[in-house]
């Protein structure tokens, strides 16, 4: 048994050495082939590498007490360990890379935030204006309905009596309607004056300040504006009684 062990130990020493010599011989053959093909006297990189590898194998086989190379080490040195987990991944996430398969949320730009704020404010303003316009429309519709009823009653009464026309609007109604139309935008008031009874419209325009009345008439249709101008020029107190106390 002892001689078998010695034989195996000697064989283990001889085989690497023989292999190294074979590698060296093969390297020289490769160098000769490269030189013959290229015609250059310099040794090729492949040949030098094979020679150095053969020498390293011979040195390792000649030292039986040396420990085998540690797994993970190469000829160029130990490899750098790869860290997995939160260390490197968190750095990538912080640097704007992909984290856990998902891109990190991008922070909102200052300009975009200001734009969103402006849009929200504009919506609030538009909502408030819409509510105010709806309330104005409700008041105008109610006033127009009352006015139409009074006109119909007045015209029917005058036709039945055969007498002169009597005032249809009281001073209170005229003042209230005038205040409503003055508070409106000229374009909105003009749209109503275009379909309103012309006598009533002229009476209301006559109660307004000249600048406000002219702004409304400028937005009216040309035909209605011409008729209103003619009636204002020869206006008589038919609808709204004028007080003669002051002369």
From TrEMBL:
Residues 60-112 are annotated as: Disordered. Residues 76-85 have a biased composition (Polar residues). This is Magnesium transporter MgtE intracellular domain-containing protein.
């Amino acid at each position: 048994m002892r001689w078998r062990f010695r034989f195996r130990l000697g064989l283990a020493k001889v085989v690497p050495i023989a292999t190294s010599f074979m590698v060296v011989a093969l390297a020289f053959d490769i160098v000769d082939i490269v030189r013959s093909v290229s015609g250059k006297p310099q040794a090729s990189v492949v040949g030098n590498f094979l020679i150095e590898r053969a020498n390293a194998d011979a040195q390792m086989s000649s030292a039986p007490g040396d420990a085998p190379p540690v797994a993970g080490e190469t000829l160029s040195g130990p490899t750098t360990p790869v860290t997995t987990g939160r260390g490197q991944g968190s750095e990538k996430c912080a640097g704007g890379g992909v984290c856990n398969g998902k891109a990190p949320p991008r922070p909102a730009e200052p300009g975009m935030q200001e734009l969103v704020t402006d849009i929200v404010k504009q919506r609030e303003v538009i909502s408030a204006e819409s509510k105010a316009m709806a309330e104005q429309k409700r008041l105008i519709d109610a006033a127009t309905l009352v006015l139409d009823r009074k006109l119909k009653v007045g015209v029917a009464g005058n036709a039945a009596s055969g007498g002169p026309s009597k005032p249809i609007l009281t001073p209170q109604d005229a003042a209230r309607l005038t205040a409503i139309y003055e508070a409106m935008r000229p374009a909105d008031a003009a749209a109503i004056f275009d379909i309103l009874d012309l006598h009533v419209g002229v009476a209301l325009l006559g109660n307004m300040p000249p600048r406000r009345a002219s702004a409304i008439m400028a937005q009216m249709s040309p035909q209605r504006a011409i008729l209103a101008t003619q009636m204002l020029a020869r206006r008589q107190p038919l609808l709204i009684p004028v007080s003669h106390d002051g002369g």
